[in-house]
Amino acid sequence: MIRLLKPGLLAALTTLAVPAAASAHGIGQRADLPIPLWLFAWAAAFVLVASFVALSVLWPKPVLADARSRLLGRVPLALEVFAGAVGIFAFVLIVYSGLAGSQTATANLAPTAIFVLVWVGIPFASVLFGDVFAVLSPWRAIGRGVGWAAARVGGGLPAPINYPERLGRWPAALLILAFAWIELVWSGREEPSSLAIVALLYAAVMLLGMSCFGAEKWCRNADGFGVAFSLFALLAPLDWKDRRCSLRAPLVGALEMPQVAGSVAVVCVMIGSTSFDGFSQGTVWTGASGLAQQLSDLFSSLGFAAGTAVEAAYTIGLLLIVGLVSGLYRLAVIGMNRTGSGKPPTPELARGFAHTLIPIALAYVVAHYFSLFVFQGQATFFLISDPLGNGSDVFGTSQTAINYSLLSANAIWYTQVAALVIGHVAALVLAHDKALATWSNPRVAIRSQYWMLLVMVAFTCLGLWFLSAAAS
Amino acid sequence: MTLLLAHIGHWYHVLLYLAPILLIGLGLWWSSRREMRREREDAAEAEQTPL
Known about the structure:
Chain A has 19 helices and five strands. A three-stranded antiparallel sheet of chain A has the order 3-5-4, with no helix packed on it. Chain B has one domain. The chains are: A mainly alpha, B mainly alpha.
């Protein structure tokens, strides 16, 4: 037995002693780190426990709900109209590029614009400047424009149908999941024309929904992009409401997350889909005898074509990781409910604490897509001069290239770890403040957060494992 | 078992990421039990104390 164990143990100990190597999302560089990757998970767990203890001692009362914001100024209507026009122009350009341009993904503006500038760039902009997509959204701009024109010409549009409250944000959750499927699973994602058609279909669904239920109600609940970006914007220091811009304290905005049906599903899908992006790059998933191969073989044996079998395997992987994230959050909520002797009820608690997941969703976006944004984002400079990939040079920048030495692999790894740790500490702060507001007895409130702490540590270690798996 | 150990290099790292979760979970479970016991003792003492 000892003889059998020896080589394995020796190999394990040797690997543990050797400094780790990590590569970042989307680039081939490898980082030389002074300590093994798994030690970062231990360090992150320690930071979370230390933060939890500090919060228990130094934060005895809920304070976030009472924080005041300071009015900075008013925003002219013309700016909103201009931003809407920019959004419509950008949408038309992306769709036209996809349909009429080169079908090589790297030479066409559409894939980079959709997967990098919109899906990653707008969350970053939202966290810094507030809900920029609310004013840039092409369908919302069209909807508001039609409403304005109808009011001027024919006395306004007919009253919209009442949006079913039970539906809540479930349509947005499903649309985010569908987009994640397109990004991570669908084989047609590399074809600009297919992406353009999907973008047109999405816009059609949005316009139809807005015409039935009203522009604001539909965009707030069913626009997957609008809902996801608005959640990131809640973390921004700038708050834009009724054409007023205010400055608010950090994290205070997260409390404004609407507690409606499907709100938990939205954040769980956001975290789960980003997690699957990391997990699907690791050897556990992609290895020669990895899970993807085994699932593909299973579907092939059931008669699926090779491509469809791979897509089916990846679909199952995506759903499983989203399910895992939802299950972990559910575990935290059930634990909190039991600590609080069943009050408030579990569904109410789940929605009440859903805002604590927003910083985690942001942390995962930064950790997984930061390097993609920094490197592939540079492609915008040459793609904007030649959006169709047909050799044009509108702004004289078509000959620029991506500078891969802009960030070292070490810098990317440390940014990823810092994002995960800061995101989870922020989540702990939000959960601690909410617990103090939920339970009148501070001892019960703190004990209820044991579960949240455990789940946050699990999320952090899971995130770091996915990142390290992608690096191996 | 032999097969499992022969492939230890493929899965041992999962344990390294799982270990902090298990350790903290164990610590929180122990701390929670201790606190609840103390609360029960406090409550019992308060009941026995004459007014």
